[in-house]
Write a structure and sequence with these properties.
Layout (H helix, E strand, L loop, with lengths): L1 E3 L17 H9 L3 H5 L4 E4 L2 H16 L1 E3 L5 E3 L20 H8 L6 H10 L13 H12 L2 H5 L2 H10 L4 E2 L4 E2 L12 H6 L11 E2 L1 H21 L3 H22 E2 L4 E2 L2 E2 L21 H4 L7 H4 L33 E2 L2 E2 L9 H17 L1 H5 L5 H14 L37 H8 L9 E4 L10 E9 L2 E8 L12 E6 L2 E6 L5 E4 L26 E4 L6 H4 L19 E2 L8 E21 L11 E7 L8 E3 L4 E2 L7 E19 L7 E7 L1
Parallel strand pairs: 1-18
Antiparallel strand pairs: 2-14, 3-4, 5-6, 7-10, 8-9, 11-12, 13-18, 14-15, 15-16, 16-17, 19-21, 20-26, 21-25, 21-26, 22-23, 22-25, 24-25
Amino acid sequence: MKLYSSLTFIPLFQLGYALLDVDAIVDKHYGNDAAWYRDRIPLFESSDQDITDVYYYRWSIFRAHQRDLGAYGYISTEFLDDVGWQTKPFASLNDATGFHLLEGRWCRDRRFKEDYATFMYSADSNSRQFSESMAAAVWAGYLVDGVKEDAIKRLSDMTRVYDAWDDSFDTSKGLYYVEPIRDATEYTISSIDSSGGYDGFFGGDSFRPSINSYQYANALAIANMASLAGSMNSTVDTYTTRASALKNRVQEALWNTTFSHFIDRYQVNNENVTYWDPIRGRELVGMVPWTHDLPDDNADYAQAWAHILDADELRGEAGLRTVEPSYEYYMRQYRYEGPNPECQWNGPVWPFQMTQVLSGLANFLDHYEKGKEAGVINSDDYTNLLRQYAQLHRNPSTNILDLEEDYYPDTGLPIVGLKRSHHYFHSGFNDLVLSGLVGIRPRSDDVLEVAPLASAAQLTYFRAERIMYHGREIAVQWDKDGSHYGGGNSTGLTVEVDGKVVASSPSLTRLSVELERKAPPAITRKLAKSIQLNSTTPYPRASASVGNSSQSATYPAIDGRIWFYTEPDAKNGWDTPVGNGTSIWFQIDFGKSVSTSSAELAFFANEEQGFAEPESYKIQVPAAGGNGTEWTDAEDAVYGDVVANGITEVEWKEVEGEKVRVVFTPKTGMKVRIAEFKVY
């Protein structure tokens, strides 16, 4: 490992704060919505176009799943729209929260991950709905931004949530157990076999590598944050001890020498299965211990990685199988919604576990030295698997980037063709690019460590820049022969801090730089007053002068969600009839007097579907001294240009009132869809 002092910059060359053209990149990938991304996302490019394209697509998924809850702040959703099992009225689900926070730690606007973590640890969320690794993800966020106050402020809630899982802890075995559906993994071996092969949606409680790895990682995170807070030695000791005990028990009890794999043992005992017996096959979930750095570093455990490279075992042509083909009920479809298959995890490729495996592989290749000596897997395999995962995002039938719930392992075609499945946020990708492929290995001390897992044989160049790390702006660049970024001193691997090259190597290797941290920019919060949390919430509520003005119809236009995907199933907003030259109004009733002074309007446009932005618009408020039915144009209004598939901004002189409305004229022959009318 090369260690460079932050006090001495290597005099190679000065790139400035940016080499990539941010305006050209965000305009290309996001069109009229580019403004949202311009100052929020790190930039990335590489010689692999699939990885590059999916990197920017995944930021659009991140953006689309930011739900504004008004006074509650932002949360990340799993589905674009409401589903029946979400925590109401907020639309939160905690099974993918760890991924959401890991993606969000690289967003330059820290509000999204901080609001979200605060909400998920509040009394309003259901933090016990599924097994989770939230505390570990919060700690991982601290490793990137270095903001101590944010890391430690939820400690008491973290211990409360952690300790609540005692009801699923078997003291005689020293392990946690969980029903697979509560592990977000219905129809796995334990649940199917415990039903005698008849079903598997419910049932099958078992001691799983997943929940025990999550609790191990959460315990270590709590101990680390308690230590960071100081004067909390009892908490540090308690959770360090719990983590150590779990690590030992997972290795003693869940490692199966026959399979050379971590597998479930049954907690349920019935006519079909017996308590403490191991399940009868390998599942991809057996790789999750490495996602959280649990296993010891030795050659025996390293053999598990061979299974994800074997086409007869966990590796499919299009992605990693959740269960091996040798299993009796592999890929048997049990559950449908009408004629459409529902998601099951008895073989299909699942982005959720693809993410976990790649994150675990990055850990293994980064610092499991004895395991790597076994020669089972290497960085070429990491790059191959990441490329395979990237390609999964593009539907081979339509060639459109649209990540869905699950896939056939041999073809890569989506299985679940349901309305809810489009642009599904139950996985990660950009964290894998930045912490794995590019190799930024976040740390708690004042060191920037870069150890790329990119294959030099497969990637001739990459560059990641505008990355905020410990309050500094960093960039990492690889140019195999110097031909892409200008030759000369750009050849090889370089690391930049605040626009200056601070470390370099002719090859892809580990570079470490002492780095004095700085406070990142403060979080700014503008609170929307117009958010209706669900269609039955009394206020705020919307109505319109034409078309369907029921709350179920108008609610999507004030629900805090903004996206512009074109799939008809992914509709978001309220639609007008076809324009005929007359004006239309869309009104928000707050149910009480509030102060308003600005708004953001998101108009969806797609000519093929008959939607266009309006010809013109204006904001109106109730007339002073009127009876509530008279309206006047907002005073001193400054109107931004009407934007299609982006944000139209307007400001006016602050006014008190119970209502506000937008009046607009659709283009003749076209409809207007208000994706969101957000008032401040």
